[in-house]
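=== RUN LOG ===
request id: a7f3
mode: sequence -> structure
chains: 1
length: 204
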Amino acid sequence: MEFQGASFQNLGSWLLRLARLDLTVFDDVKDDVSATVPTLTVAVVASFLSGLGSWLWWTFQDFPKGGGDVFVKSFLLGSILQVGVWFLWVYVAAMILSRGLGVTADLNRLLRTMGLAFAPMSITVLMLVSFLTVPFGVIAIAATVALTYVAIQAATDAEPHQVMLANIVGFVIFAVVLGILANISEVYNTGGLAPGLFFFNLNP
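=== RESULT ===
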């Protein structure tokens, strides 16, 4: 317990370094077994903040009803589903590198570094500001993709083009699955079982 407690105490420092774009933080967490739970917690919390953002957006739009549905479908279920799809992103990246490209890619190392790299997704909590919904959503996704590239690079010996391929394929699957979920159990033809910017069903 003290072992994990120490890592949670370090978590604030890791996030602060990440905010300062001190990317050497990934080198510190990749082999730190005690960092596994804290960095996975970052991915979980970021997902729930993302879901909170889409629910607050709905709430501040003064829609006559549907807030309860959005709370359950976007904030609760959507956030949980996004965590699962994020795991799929990490797994796909690891499999492409290890089985597809023959690069040593330890899944646990990737979970730690990519968990920390998922922190920018929490920016989507700010999408409640209606005229900044799309900018905040896009910034969060772009920053997350950029940091996951660095995270994979730090956790493996892959070449830059290999990292880019694995990360892009993993992200595309992440985005497509969440896009599909946005079309499931929709609330007033607006969005479904996905959090943040992915909540919205953009189909006409």
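=== NOTES ===
The mean pLDDT is 93.
DSSP finds seven helices and no strands in the chain.
=== END ===
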